[in-house]
UniProtKB/TrEMBL annotation:
Listed InterPro entries: Lysozyme-like_dom_sf, Peptidoglycan-bd_3, TtsA-like_GH18_dom
Pfam families: Glyco_hydro_108 (PF05838), PG_binding_3 (PF09374)
Residues in TtsA-like Glycoside hydrolase family domain copies: 8-90
Protein name (Swiss-Prot/TrEMBL): Peptidoglycan binding protein
SUPFAM superfamilies: Lysozyme-like
Residue ranges of every copy of the Peptidoglycan binding domain listed in the record: 94-177
Length: 184
């Protein structure tokens, strides 16, 4: 699936306008939170945020800025997961899941060196991803995806444990955010 398809899938899942008092993100439209929309220059009421503006925000903030297009060239399923996770948790958090998984899967640096867990896609992270995929072909991408989703699921549980109001969201997070292609 290309980035436009990923964006359309997120918008379909997130729906139109929402304002849940338990959601620290505040009002959302098309899944874009009010703080993100304001930071991107949206001045109007959240209920009026155009779908095309939301799509542009998703592309700019959650795909291009974190350099997921570079990941997609190598591992499209990983890029799709990082995009979706980044929309929900922020791109740096999603990218740290990738970096942590790559570090844990390098067999004590026998396959490639550890990368800094800094939440940014740079040359070292891309080199580690390339090396992992080369060493673990053909099933490496699927295993890496499972590792990323395991980290994501653990984070959702921790969020619900630390803040009971998040329990209202836990089932949906697990049902709609974890599972790879089943939700894209």
């Amino acid at each position: 699936m290309d980035v436009d398809g990923l964006i359309d899938a997120v918008i379909a899942r997130e729906g139109g306008y929402a304002r849940n008092p338990a959601d620290r993100g505040g009002a959302t439209r098309w899944g874009v939170s009010e703080p993100v929309a304001r930071a991107q220059g949206w001045q109007g009421p959240m209920r009026a945020l155009p779908r095309e503006e939301a799509k542009a925000i998703y592309r700019r903030i959650y795909w291009l800025r974190p350099r997921l297009d570079y990941v997609a060239d190598r591992a499209p399923r990983i890029a799709a997961e990082l995009f979706d996770t980044g929309v929900n948790m922020g791109p740096p958090v999603a990218i740290t899941f990738l970096q942590r998984a790559l570090n844990a899967l390098n067999r004590n640096r026998a396959d490639y060196v550890d990368v800094a867990v800094d939440g940014r896609i740079g040359p070292a992270t891309l080199a580690a991803l390339d090396a992992f995929l080369a060493v673990r072909a053909p099933g490496g991408e699927a295993v890496l995806l499972k590792a990323i989703e395991a980290l994501q699921g653990e984070r959702y549980l921790a969020l619900a444990e630390r803040r009971p109001a998040n329990e209202a969201f836990l089932y949906g997070w697990l049902a709609n955010r974890i599972g790879g292609e089943a939700r894209l």
